[in-house]
């Protein structure tokens, strides 16, 4: 596959078309009907949750949130393949993979409400916290990959970044290091066409993002990120490469951020309705649903039945997060170092004095 789709050939890997019809039988992954349906339902759950979170934010019940809307196939494919003992190294737009790893929606809600506990992940092993400093997580992924290889562990590291993240030095250092040491990391670039308002063509003069793999001497592939089957197959093959000690792999997943960058952003300022409509045709849920319906595995009726159940579950976890209690003040200070240094103790004391002063002012 990596020869056939060498990025120098400038061909994007696809398996189904926009109507859900298989156009590339040779690379159709083997997924049982039951498993496929589970993947679709997981994608649907992530979409329902995502849309609902934006509505909570509009009600002033949660802080800034970066929607996953339109990018669900990438996170779902990775989520279907990642094992409990594999490492998940997220950016901030991969809800489906986080949920598959065992992170709960409640924990994600706590994170976006500002609680440190929202990064604890009681049930998810080998999962790093959400990373907002763009691309910094990739250095951690490369380092973890090195440790995994050094300790002879049979684990793969799934590391995510956006198209904008590929312009950061951290991206180049991480992929270069991973290539030199042949570490088992799958770098997944979610090319959603924008880094906030900056279009991908302003991000690089390269022919693609996948082609950057060539310079680092690692395997790379450009994949239709709105095609669940293509993403699944590309990741499945990448896992094999990594487990054979021939990693890393760089995947460029071509997708579209249908929502705003975050709930603080207004995309009408920098993109057109026509462009949005064009990408609606390639919506990942619509394409997979068409495939499932054509193969009599799913129906609109079943979907109408399940969506209210999902909404109820999302609400249930949200209300639990809302009732979590006051934010412990020490959490602001205690997590940066294993032991708090003196200047942080000083800052905490200053903050205490500020709170006392504020309390007298309010009275
Ligand atoms: C090091 C750093 N610089 C700038 C920012 C501000 N910022 C937040 S998201 C973002 C754009 C990221 O774009 P991309 O990598 O394409 O990811 P996407 O948001 O599209 O998923 C920027 C510049 C940041 N968080 N970290
Ligand atoms: Mg982007």
Write the SSE topology.
Elements: H1 33-58, H2 72-81, E1 87-89, H3 95-101, H4 105-112, H5 136-150, E2 157-162, H6 169-180, E3 185-191, E4 194-195, E5 198-199, H7 212-216, E6 219-224, H8 228-243, E7 249-254, H9 273-280, H10 284-294, H11 300-322, H12 331-334, H13 342-362
Parallel strand pairs: 1-2, 2-3, 3-7, 6-7
Antiparallel strand pairs: 4-5
Helix pairs in contact: 1-2, 1-3, 1-10, 1-11, 2-3, 2-8, 4-11, 5-6
The protein binds thiamine diphosphate (TPP) and magnesium ion.
Shape: globular
Number of helices: 13
How many distinct beta strands? 7
- Specify the helix fraction band: 40-55%
Looking at CATH, the homologous superfamily of the largest domain is: Thiamin diphosphate (ThDP)-binding fold, Pyr/PP domains
Secondary structural class: alpha/beta
Major sheet strand order: 1-2-3-7-6
Output the CATH topology of the largest domain: Rossmann fold
Low-confidence stretches: none
- The radius of gyration over CA amounts to 21 Å
Sheet with the most strands? 5 strands, parallel
Distance between the termini: 69 Å
> How large a portion of the residues is in β-strands, by DSSP E?
5-15%
Q: From the 3D coordinates, which CATH architecture of the largest domain would you assign?
A: 3-Layer(aba) Sandwich
The CATH class name of the largest domain reads Alpha Beta
């Amino acid at each position: 596959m990596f020869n056939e789709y060498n990025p120098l050939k400038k061909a994007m890997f696809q398996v189904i078309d926009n109507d859900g019809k298989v156009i590339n039988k040779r690379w159709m992954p083997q997924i049982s009907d039951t498993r496929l349906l589970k993947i679709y339902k997981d994608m649907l759950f992530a979409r329902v949750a995502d849309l609902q979170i934006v509505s909570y934010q509009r009600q002033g019940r949660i802080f800034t949130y970066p929607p996953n809307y339109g990018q669900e196939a990438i996170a779902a494919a990775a989520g279907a393949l990642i094992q409990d003992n594999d490492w998940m190294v997220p950016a901030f737009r991969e809800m489906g993979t986080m949920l598959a790893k065992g992170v709960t929606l409640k924990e994600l809600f706590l994170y976006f409400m500002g609680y440190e506990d929202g990064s604890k992940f009681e049930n998810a092993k080998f999962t790093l916290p959400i990373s907002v400093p763009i691309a910094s997580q990739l250095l951690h992924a490369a380092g973890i990959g090195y440790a995994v290889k050094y300790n002879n562990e049979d684990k793969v590291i799934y590391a995510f970044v956006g198209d904008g993240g590929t312009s950061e030095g951290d991206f180049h250092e991480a992929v270069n290091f991973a290539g030199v040491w042949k570490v088992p990391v799958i770098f997944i670039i979610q090319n959603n066409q924008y880094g906030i308002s900056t279009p991908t063509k302003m991000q690089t003069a390269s022919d693609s993002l996948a082609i950057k793999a060539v310079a680092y001497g690692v395997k790379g592939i450009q994949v239709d990120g709105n095609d669940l089957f293509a993403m699944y197959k590309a990741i499945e093959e990448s896992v094999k490469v990594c487990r054979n000690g021939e990693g890393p792999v760089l995947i460029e997943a071509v997708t579209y951020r249908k929502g705003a960058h975050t709930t603080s952003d207004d995309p009408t300022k920098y993109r057109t309705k026509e462009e949005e409509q064009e990408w609606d045709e390639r919506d990942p849920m619509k394409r997979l649903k068409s495939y499932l319906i054509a193969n009599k595995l799913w129906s609109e009726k079943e979907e109408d039945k399940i969506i209210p159940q999902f909404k109820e579950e999302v609400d249930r976890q949200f209300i639990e997060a809302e009732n979590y209690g006051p934010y412990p003040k020490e959490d602001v200070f205690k997590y940066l170092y294993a032991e708090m240094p003196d200047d942080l103790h000083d800052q905490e004391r200053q903050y205490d004095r500020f709170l006392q002063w504020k309390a007298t002012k309010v009275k």
